[in-house]
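Re: that chain you flagged

S.,

Sorry for the slow reply, it's been a week of failed gels. I finally had a moment to sit down with the sequence you sent. For the record, here it is as I used it:
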Amino acid sequence: MKYLNEYKQKLVRADEAVKIIKSGDWVDYGWASGTPVDSDKALAARLEELNDIKFRGGILLWMPEIFKIKDAKEHFTWNSWHMSGIERKAVESGIAYYSPIRYSELPRYYRDSICPNDVAIFQVAPMDKHGYFNFGPNASHLTAVCETSKKVIVEVNHNMPNCLGGFENCVHISDVDRIVEGSNPAIGELGVSPITPVDEAVAELILEEIPNGACLQLGIGGMTNAVGTLIAKSDLKNLGVHTEMYVDAFVDISEAGKINGSQKSKDRFRQTYAFAAGTKKLYDFLDHNSECMSAPVNYTNDIRSISSLDNFISINNCVEVDLFGQVNSESSGIRHISGAGGQLDFVLGAYLSNGGKSFVCCSSTYKTRDGDMKSRILPTLNQGSIVTDTRTNIHYFVTEYGKVNLKGLSTWQRCEAIISVAHPDFREELIKEAEKMKIWKKSNK
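Prediction finished late last night. Pasting the structure tokens below so you have them in one place:
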């Protein structure tokens, strides 16, 4: 192999590789299933010697060893572009912080705005004969990470799927400083949420709006999984995929023969995505699959890319919605939950698509730890809650009680529509609050 000598020269043990990290450094840990394993263990072993290390990463699928060291917050901070449950708990312990993003802009943040990484470490697939290490299902923004980091360490994992497709989905050995041959752990999985009767009800309402030849974007969660299950069982055909996150539901739809991409005006016959996280079934499906196109997020989430695809259908979840139509998908008050991700990108892009529709959905209620039922539809968002989609952005809002198109509605019309899909037990209370806010007409009732 042409690059074998260079490979041998750069090959080091994990404990040797992480010695280049020093106090005060910015260290990038990649993304999702690409988060390092062996290098993380090696760094954790010496992290108590260091201070003020600032990590970047996101969507952790397992708890890194660095999180487990004694007095962790005295030695580092974790700065997440999008939080998983592991990172939410780390916020409570004082080591993790959210970095607000519009996901489509993330590569540019690295190239133009943020303090450059001193070191980047992440898992990759084995080097090919041309000297390239594939990012696996994590193309997202990793090329920008490599371009702007002073040192790049790749941790080779033979279990990492090789995700083909587009561009900016790999790094060449000439741009790598150190190579670690990892212990080849199984790729971190993101479990599929069980489907509830509420999820099924929402999914059925959305399925009615999807035409043959539609191009799909699905978010994560039980509701979108339910939509995928129904699509797989439906009579729909000639569907396409252009999504931020590739999830298990797409595999089910593909294996049911519903996806061929024949109606896409760009990347025809390809399933385009920025990153993927799910079960082993998903990773096996993506591995060396020429139908699937791994691409950077500033391409997949660019509203110009999205809007150029006819009949674009975007489906995402939210935490709560208020009577003005403001959508919060990120927090519960000041308690952080996940992040903005690319929801706004797809809400905007889908509406600009010829025949496109975006759906923001949620259950009408939730239960507290004490068993009390609370409405997800509120008069106004809770204090501290984040507006992910403004009231002018939302297209269709869906709960198990119905779907409403909010485009073009005045405040009283929009308020009426939103209350119509609230849980019946909360509608009278919402009407009273709407009257106080001067956005309710008595004639509506």
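What I noticed first: The longest strand covers residues 240-246.

Talk soon,
D.
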